[in-house]
Amino acid sequence: MRHRIVLATMAICVAVAFTIATGTTAAAQGRGRGAGGGRGASPGGPPAGTGVDRGIGTSSERSMGRADTGRGNASDRSDGRSAAGLARARVASENLKSADNDLRRHPNLASNMHVNANDLRAGYQAALAVNPNLTFGQYVAATRLARNLGANNPNITRAAILAGLAAGHSIGRTLQDLGLSKDAAKAASKRVDLEIKQSRR
Questions:
Q1: How far, in Å, are 61, 145, 163, 192 from residue 185 at the CA level?
Q2: What would the 3-class secondary structure string for 146-175 be?
Q3: Model pLDDT for residues 112-127, shown as the tens digit of each residue
Q4: Which residues have C-beta within 8 Å of that of residue 23, sequence separation ≥ 6?
Q5: 3-state SS track over the chain
Q6: How does pLDDT run across 81-111, given as a tens digit for each residue?
Q7: What does the alpha-carbon distance between residue 125 and residue 198 come to, in Å, rounded to a whole number?
Q8: Which residues contact 188 (CB under 8 A, 6 or more apart)?
Q9: Counting Cβ atoms within 10 Å, is residue 9 exposed (0-12), middle (13-18) or buried (19+)?
Q10: How far apart are CA 96 and CA 90, in angstroms?
């Protein structure tokens, strides 16, 4: 009987000791994984003293070159759309920068059309999203042509002229497609060229 009591007592002591040890380990892990992270590095986080670019710098070595291949093939896998998109964005950005310079040097470009310079710039920026190769001069010409001709030629709008330019046509060809004769289109283009030159004086 006495032997059984001793065994039961020992079993209880072992169970209590195990429970205390388990609780202490869990508490230690909880401190390490807390929001502040404590003084020591958390098991799931980056080692102390390393930056956010740690993985990028060694990704090629750790993946045995697969990371470089993946980054290098981004354009190929998208059939060139990635590179083409970047090129379009660069062209549009350069054209918009050129428009800003033009408006600063020649404020009459907008005022002679009774248009606010900011509105003219915003309209050009929106047009660049469709046709990044559109020059500011072409946009101004399309705006002037629509104002000069639209009353008598409802088909001739700025949007219609810009669509023709986006399709790769010249302004003259676009005006003819919109209903003007060849001579009328030529005369209208010459008039607008003169108006723009005068605005830049």
A1: 63, 10, 16, 11
A2: HHHHCCCCCCCCHHHHHHHHHCCCCHHHHH
A3: 988 999 999 999 999 9
A4: none
A5: CHHHHHHHHHHHHHHHHHHHHHHHHHHHHHHHCCCCCCCCCCCCCCCCCCCCCHHHHHHHHHCCCHHHHHHHCHHHHCCCHHHHHHHHHHHHHHHHHHHHHHHHHCCHHHHCCCCCHHHHHHHHHHHHHHCCCCCHHHHHHHHHHHHHHCCCCCCCCHHHHHHHHHCCCCHHHHHHHCCCCHHHHHHHHHHHHHHHHHHCC
A6: 677 788 889 999 999 999 999 999 999 999 9
A7: 24
A8: 145, 148, 149, 175, 180
A9: exposed
A10: 10
C-alpha separations of 188 from 52, 77, 142 in Å: 60, 46, 11
> Whole-prediction pTM value?
0.59
CA dihedral (117, 125, 136, 185) positive or negative: negative
Q: Are 102 and 109 in contact (CB under 8 A)?
A: yes
Rg (CA), the chain: 36
